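Input record (one chain):
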Amino acid sequence: MQELISVSESRKCLLLAELLRTDGFVSGQQLCGRFGISRTAVWKMISQLAEEGYEVESVPRKGYRLVACPDVIRPELVGAYLLNRYEGRMEEGRAGSFLRYYDVTGSTNNDAKRLAEEGAPSGTLVAADCQQAGKGRRGRTWSNPAGTNIAMSLLLRPDIQPVHASMLTLVMGMAAARACKEAAPSLQIMIKWPNDIVCEGKKLSGILTEMSSEVDCINYVVVGIGINANLESFPDEISSTASSLKLLTGKNICRAELTASVMYWFEQYYGVFLKTQDLSGLMDEYNSLLAGKNDRVRVLDPNGEFTGISEGINRRGELLVKTEDGTVSEIYAGEVSVRGIYGYT
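The corresponding structure, as predicted from the sequence alone:
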């Protein structure tokens, strides 16, 4: 199997977590005791971090202080932020408990599926700095330039019926919306059913869920998500419908922290979902985030377009659309798209 980083066992993750959560200096002796290693070993780890772009101040008789981090989504930094979200304890099986990183890859969904076939555990997260052949709905592809966005895929092995797996797209949507709101509190982050995160009428994020299953059981599910974090421009053909957190806030977003935040919130919502294997415990919050709720929408169904009023989702994650004759249609994602009457959302 390709090498996986266990967050709970990685000394580099643990060291960075300690430095991140400490405002001042952390003594070398404290780090020695924390990790059961020598001062020389601590110094070597600090030196390695410095070589990798981390700015660590070292002062005799005071210890070490983290001054600045590079904008990377490498495992040691994502893992450190995850550890701090869980107060230093990261249990195996949680979203992001195992990490695999690529500088450049084709598709993180494909990478995650390969790992799944090799036996990687549930909770494995695959992330890439540059994704060249990302996958979208209905066979679309998109690229992710290096050093700007987030491209990642989460491997899950849920004990649920295959028919319920599509709802995991909505669970991830809630997690991404919550995490983006944390990163940019001034923005009104919304969910465009079923798989986009939007703000000010433009797309910030897309989600694609893929599954391997038998008739009555799931082998694995891969939930892939891309987030426009620090991209500063878009091609002309999508500039009217896409934006990034940086363009909307004027500030750089810490991609590693946002990645960890998405995993943390996914784990919270996933736990609620698993209790009932539907969205009954999440419906109210999801609908509060739903773009276009109570507005007229256009349903782009291969069997025929129609318009109606969006009334939110039901417990199965279907969108309820009420037409002029009073009929309420339950729209299953599949090959169907929904647009606002006057624009993308």
